[in-house]
């Protein structure tokens, strides 16, 4: 098959099944049936102090699917620990379905090499596991979903989770859990909801067993089969690390200032506006600029959504937004705010952006600020592979929010370390250009020709509007025409759009 | 078939299907599969101002099942309004599945007579509808479920709801709802959760459409298909009416004092204890007595659960409990507390007491105070039919909490208006005696012989412990042996225990 972008998609892949080619964004998903869920009543002992005792109770066999959430990010100890236990038991052909994979999960490479793990599906994969996949070490192609696509697959039964392992900062004896109380506090549990609700068996893992009842309750005891108490679920310094620093790069700051002006003139800057931004340095600079502008113009928004960080929390506290909808907390300020401010609301990943659901928060977004590793002449964006062709991330909520928001803006330097970001053709298509409205670079702003209304709105401003082809030419002038990366034939990953169709494939690096 | 109590249960009833006879309380429900749910993505307009426009979009046909929740109690305007609209469209053979039916729902009798409604399933039915059912006016036997059994039936697909109509005190344009903000505030939405999650179509009805997002969110937009805005969903005076007044009857107060002493000596009176009480006058007096005792002895409990009222709220505010778990608010104090106190927690009915789920709050209960219309020599309780044989209520959470709590205590006068409550044989078995531990009357305390541990604990106290047979004799001495009520052959209602088996039948009154 050939998909909308002329990319060849196999109709069937062994170990994966039949594939459907991406044919453009559907406005609605139509009618979907959720899958029956096996529930086993349990009013007796749920708490155990040894994973072995719990594993003894489970129907472990080759080919099972196990899932994890990524709220502990690069501080996570749970996935490695559990996978080591499963590997020790000699379980083979495991399908691993974590919501994201981080560098800390390096021990997985060994399990991939041994045949313990032969399939991985996730919304974001970075570090040594991404490298191993790119090098063709995983037996079957990895499936790279979106944040919204993942619960859609789980809820419709296309991913059947045998055991969901859900790390919790606190749990009571029945498995009422949250992510805010305890030494390993990480914030909301938004990404774990579909796992807990739809897995055959849900095992909570906590290092903070508290008196019944544990509150607030992000995930209820009615979904919990067992509670495993361990010494530590994560390294706090890794849990809330890194990403939420604003850029100091003058070009990044220039882009942020331009973006803020663009928003001001876009028609979406008004009372009741809603906003989300990624956690990249430039995206955060946009949040800072927007906050200034909102204060200056006395504008109050309805909600900010997404992964939350101190910049967004500041905006809530300054009354620039009425609410935050939060699937994950990126830093301590976000954790604290979620814990103490009733206007900082929990949001499951399905509520955030599952395309099968009856309207999501992402669909209510006015303005979305997105990053890009590459963006092409048709505004298609890559956030999966780097300039060397290696997998280094994933869509996360990129495609989801781009599709949902009324105004989706990609902010990026035209060139990074002498490599053009804006280019004729990109390595991997993550997000279709039809869902990207504007690109802001330090060399000017390109508006997607599909958005005639925005072109019209901005034509009498002094904003530096350019054609995207001009930006590509400028980049080529500075860096030369980038050489296309050569890949092996072998497909190492399938890029699955939020509707379950295949939008691109990633091939083995040479 | 003959069930555990020697009651004949038909194997099949036309219009109802195959029946299973009650054979004693099962400790666990085993493995259950939830039913697939049809979801239709909807990011476009959900809000309508006319029920006719919404009905035009629905697949209305004879035989559909429609559901309602009872949080507006006797102030509810929604059920009557919707049923009138459906009747006007000539829909026949509707299966009505409200969580409870109140006197205000009298217009239903007309729909029963016309054949618009031919089946009713509910956990509590009072007033003219109960009378009409007892008089044999409903075409098929009504199914009287328990609060926990109802979501179990819905989630397992044994009740398939075509359209759930969910009244909300406030909703935004996407159908995020709660019951606390607005002129028709009624408190939590615990009983509506399974309906909203499992219905083919969920229609929110509100008289308070607010800006997006509406928070707090008891039920998320991902379950809402349409939002109907009306002038009024209920009459505030009926919403929080009546039941939560403490008894002034000296006998009731004596029973409450005895019960409090019993609790003190039971072994369950200690730090971390959990407690629930019904909303009857004597039950409330027990709460008042218990509060005094807890203060006196400096005891702090973990949680109080159930329908909540001002007495329970007072206990939370006095720090006698750490949390309240709430499925429904009985009075304004409860509504206010739920709205403002983060220790007053939401609880879906499934979390409260669905026997299929992985451990419920009711299963964590230490002490449960229950009422009774009648109680027999084996501690079997009737809360469904009155002394005249008419249906006048239902189990609600009676059987559920009796089964879950470690110490379930029935409090009742031995005799009411010269009619014995404690008697050899009762009219209708709602709750099996094996789940009732103690009966407290003004003539003494009877302990279920199955609870040897409690008998042992109390034998050296000065509590007036008696055999239940003695209480029956005393009642007979005062009132004479009550005449058995004569019924017609026709079965008008099936009493379904929480596990879905038939524990008794109700026959037509003569």
Mean pLDDT of chain A: 96
Low-confidence stretches of chain A: none
Q: What is the helix fraction of residues of chain A, given as a range?
A: 25-40%
Treating each run of at least 4 consecutive H or I residues as one helix, how many helices of chain A? Answer: 15
- Give the amount of beta strand of chain A, in percent: 15-25%
- Structural class, judged by helices and strands of chain A? alpha/beta
Q: Biggest sheet of chain A: strands side by side, in what order?
A: 5-14-13-10-6-7-8-9-28-29
Q: What distance separates the N and C termini of chain A?
A: 25 Å
Per DSSP E runs of 2 or more residues, the count of β-strands of chain A stands at 29
Biggest sheet features of chain A? 10 strands, mixed
Query: What oligomeric state is this?
Result: homodimer
Largest interface (CB < 8 Å): A-B, 57 and 57 residues
The radius of gyration of chain A is 22 Å
Basic shape of chain A: globular
Task: Report on the architecture of this protein.
Two copies of one chain form a homodimer. In chain A, 61% of the residues are buried. The radius of gyration of chain A is 22 Å and the shape is globular. Helices cover 25% and strands 23% of the residues of chain A. In chain A, a hairpin with a 2-residue loop joins β25 (438-441) and β26 (444-447). In chain A, the strands form six sheets. In chain A, strands 5-14-13-10-6-7-8-9-28-29 form a ten-stranded mixed beta sheet. In chain A, strands 18-17-16-15-19-22-25-26-27 form a nine-stranded mixed beta sheet, with helices on both faces. Chain A has a two-stranded antiparallel ribbon with strand order 1-2. In chain A, α8 (250-265) crosses α9. The first copy, chain A, contains 15 helices and 29 strands. Chain A has 510 residues and is an alpha/beta fold. Chains A and B meet through β3, β4 and β17 of A and β3, β4 and β17 of B.
């Amino acid at each position: 098959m050939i998909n909308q972008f002329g990319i060849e998609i196999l109709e069937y892949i062994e170990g994966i099944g039949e594939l459907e080619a991406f044919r453009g964004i559907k406005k609605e998903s139509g009618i979907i049936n959720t899958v029956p869920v096996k529930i086993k009543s349990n009013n007796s002992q749920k708490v155990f102090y040894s994973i072995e005792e719990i594993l003894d109770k489970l129907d472990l066999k080759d080919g099972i699917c196990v899932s994890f959430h990524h709220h502990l990010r690069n501080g996570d100890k749970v996935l490695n620990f559990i996978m080591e236990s499963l590997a020790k038991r000699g379980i083979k052909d495991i399908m691993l379905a974590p919501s994201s994979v981080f560098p800390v999960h390096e021990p997985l490479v060994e399990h991939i090499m041994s045949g313990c793990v032969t399939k991985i599906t996730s919304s974001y994969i970075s570090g040594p596991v991404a490298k191993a996949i790119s090098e063709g070490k995983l037996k079957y192609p990895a499936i790279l979903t979106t944040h919204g696509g993942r619960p859609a697959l789980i809820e419709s039964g296309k991913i059947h989770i045998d055991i969901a392992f859900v790390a919790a900062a606190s749990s009571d004896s029945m498995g009422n859990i949250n992510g805010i109380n305890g030494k390993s506090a990480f914030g909301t549990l938004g990404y774990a909801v579909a796992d807990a609700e739809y897995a055959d068996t849900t095992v909570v893992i906590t290092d903070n067993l508290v008196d019944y009842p544990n509150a607030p309750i992000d995930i209820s005891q009615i979904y919990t089969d067992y509670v495993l108490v361990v010494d530590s679920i994560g390294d706090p310094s890794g849990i809330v690390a890194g990403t939420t620093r604003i850029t100091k790069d003058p070009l990044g700051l220039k882009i942020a200032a331009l973006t803020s002006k663009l928003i001001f003139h876009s028609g979406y800057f008004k009372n009741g506006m809603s906003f989300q931004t990624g956690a990249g340095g430039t995206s955060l600079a946009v949040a800072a600029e927007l906050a200034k502008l909102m204060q200056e113009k006395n504008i109050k928004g309805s909600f900010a959504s997404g992964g939350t960080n101190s910049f967004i929390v500041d905006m809530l506290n300054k009354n620039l937004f009425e609410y935050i909808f939060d699937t994950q907390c990126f830093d301590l300020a976000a954790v604290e705010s979620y814990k103490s401010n009733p206007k900082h609301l929990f949001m499951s990943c399905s509520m955030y952006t599952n395309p099968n659901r009856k309207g999501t928060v992402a669909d209510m977004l006015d303005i979305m600020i997105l990053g890009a590793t590459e963006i092409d002449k048709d505004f298609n964006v890559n956030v999966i592979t780097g300039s060397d062709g290696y997998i280094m991330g994933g869509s996360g909520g990129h495609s989801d929010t781009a599709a949902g928001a009324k105004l989706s803006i990609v902010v990026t330097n035209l060139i990074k370390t002498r490599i053009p970001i804006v280019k004729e053709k990109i390595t991997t298509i993550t997000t279709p250009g039809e869902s990207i409205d504007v690109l802001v670079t330090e060399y000017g702003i390109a508006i997607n020709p599909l958005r005639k209304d925005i072109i019209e709105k901005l034509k009498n401003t002094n904003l530096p509007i350019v054609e995207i082809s001009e930006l590509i030419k400028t980049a080529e002038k500075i860096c030369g025409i980038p050489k296309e990366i050569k890949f092996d034939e072998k497909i190492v990953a399938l890029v699955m759009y939020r509707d379950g169709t295949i939008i691109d494939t990633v091939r083995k690096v040479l």
